[in-house]
UniProtKB/TrEMBL annotation:
One of its GO terms (molecular function) is structural constituent of ribosome. One of its GO terms (biological process) is translation. This is 60S ribosomal protein L10. The keyword Ribonucleoprotein applies. GO terms for cellular component: ribonucleoprotein complex; ribosome. It comes from Lotharella oceanica.
Length: 262
């Protein structure tokens, strides 16, 4: 008996049914790799992030996710190189599918039980997604924006239902916008975690924050230094404006005296 089409399990009907000690014998999902490309690239290298989002409440099979991963990896590697992007599958197949197998051979009427004990046996795994949920994300350089959008468009053909392609406001895979990321990085408030960055805590116990703690007096010291720098810059600007005005007044006075002599 061949694999049952995923269109038979497209819609979310019942409660999630996951692998457990009560649900054994579940086959492994078809998708085994969730990160492709230059997954070790520094967070500063890829500021652009493009999302493929689901526009339906549905179920997506592991085979669909694997097909989408393959097509994105192939297209992006061809266009920008294997080190020019990082793609991450954000939907994970945990929901177990069941099938009540029916015999179709001669004399099957005496062997099968029909709809008695029709709970079924596990045959595969599927991901349950909601409207607006991110299916996959691609981070790359700003110049490769068109290639990332095209890769997401091609991946949409491998997935049932409707999808939307969104350009993220955040910097890469971080939770900070691009302006916030540059500001916090200049202030030393970020911890580089490789593919993403986290916030340096300025509150709580020191033993919990560890070496990444941001002490309050550091913030006060930085704010004082920044304030002094701003005041100094303002004073220099005011002095320059005053000197320019004095020079202009002296020039006008000299021109008047010269005109009177004539």
């Amino acid at each position: 008996m061949g694999r049952r089409p995923a269109r038979c399990y497209r819609y979310c009907k019942d409660k999630p049914y996951i692998k457990s000690r009560f649900c054994r014998g579940v086959p492994d999902p078809k998708i085994r790799i969730y990160d492709v490309g230059n997954k070790g690239a520094d967070v500063d290298l890829f500021p652009l992030c493009v999302h493929l989002m689901s526009d339906e409440k549905e179920q997506i099979s592991a085979e669909c996710l694997e097909a989408a991963r393959i097509v994105v990896n192939k297209f992006m590697a061809t266009q920008v190189g294997r080190d020019g992007f990082h793609m991450r599958i954000r939907a994970h197949p945990f929901h177990v599918l069941r099938i009540n197998k029916m015999l179709s051979c001669a004399g099957a009427d005496r062997l099968q039980t029909g709809m008695r004990h029709a709970f079924g046996k596990p045959i595969g795994l599927i991901a349950r997604v909601r409207i607006g949920q991110i299916l996959m994300s691609i981070r790359t350089r700003e110049g490769d924006k068109a290639h990332a959008i095209e890769a997401c468009r091609r991946a949409g053909y491998k997935i049932p239902g409707r999808q939307k392609i969104c350009i993220a406001k955040e910097w890469g895979f971080t939770k900070f916008t691009k302006d916030e990321y540059q500001l916090y990085k200049a202030q030393g408030r970020l911890i580089n975690q490789g593919a993403h960055a986290t916030w340096r805590r300025a509150h709580g116990l020191l033993k919990k924050a560890g070496e990444n703690a941001l002490l309050s007096y550091e913030l006060e010291r930085k704010s004082i230094i920044e304030k002094n720098a701003r005041e100094k810059a303002a004073e220099e600007k005011a002095a320059a404006i005053k000197a320019a005005k004095e020079a202009a007044a002296a020039y006008q006075e000299a021109m008047k005296k010269r005109a009177q002599k004539k």
